[in-house]
Amino acid sequence: MTPTTGRRIFQVIDGNKKFVGDGFDVTSPMPGPRIRQLSPFLLIDHTGPMPVAPTEAPLGTPPHPHRGFETVTVVYEGHLAHRDTAGHSGTLGPGDVQWMTAGAGLLHEERHEPEFARRGGTLELLQLWVNVPAQDKMAPPRYQNIQAQDIPEVATADGRGRIRVVSGTYEGVAGPAETFSPITLLDVHLPAGTETTISLPADYNVGIYVVKGAITMHGNRPAATKQLVVFGWDLPEVHLTATEDAVLLVLAGAPIEEPLATYGPFVMNTNRELVQAIADFESGGMGQFPEDK
């Protein structure tokens, strides 16, 4: 029997639909009214699952700038290609995670991987925007391309479900991603009927995004595909039951309690810093790709 008490549930949020670039059909449950309760997380973009028709010209997003935060991309189906003006490039397939630090600024481009684009298929991925402390906003850009086989797993108590530890430490298992502030990111896969308890520090902000399937929390509160659950800080435990086969992304971290100033692709602490970011981008200070020089 699933316990009926646990970490307080603030809200269950549905996402808004949008299209990003020419290749990403997206649902976004944040930013929204609970963004303060999910710091350091700023944004969730869930692409797909969507069909990709075969083409010789990969679709995606053209080069665009970022400064002052990180993007984290988790791929569930399909293949994605990345490049940026800091000299990083890579491809992502099912189970892989990309953790990109924009830092002082760069341009990057994300498109369907060329071979995947040629054959077509189904694409599904999740991208997070993650804030960093003020002291790290102008750090050098960094690129962590984390392969599926390098992400350790923890089994649920009944041995039926699996929890992939992307960052932070969970049940004594450390994830491979390096972060600027304490963040525990878990990719959770639960067969229908699985009951489990996720335990995280009570002072962390915690959210659970349902990538697919359905769950109940604390025995009576449901959430389903493409809904975000925002929790409070009173207790460490979240008690879950998968009422269907479910994939969840658990977002947990110490809040960054600093001023937040945002404008499009820039996340800083003051408006003055935003003005400087815009000026640096417009003057070419965030780099150029070779074909644009």
Would you write up a description of this structure?
This protein has 293 residues and is mainly beta. The chain is 6% helix and 51% strand. The protein is built from 2 helices and 26 strands. The chain has helices at 114-119, 271-282; strands at 9-14, 16-20, 24-30, 41-52, 60-66, 69-77, 80-84, 89-92, 97-101, 106-112, 121-131, 142-146, 153-155, 162-167, 169-170, 173-174, 183-190, 195-199, 205-212, 214-217, 221-224, 227-231, 237-242, 246-253, 261-263, 266-268. The chain has a 7-stranded antiparallel β-sheet, with no helix packed on it. A hairpin with a 3-residue loop joins strand 20 (214-217) and strand 21. It is globular and about 60 Å long.
Determine the strand fraction and express it as a percent band.
over 45%
What is the radius of gyration? 19 Å
Order of helices and strands: EEEEEEEEEEHEEEEEEEEEEEEEEEEH
Distance between the termini: 63 Å
Task: State the secondary-structure class.
Answer: mainly beta
| Secondary structure: number of strands | 26
Number of separate helices: 2
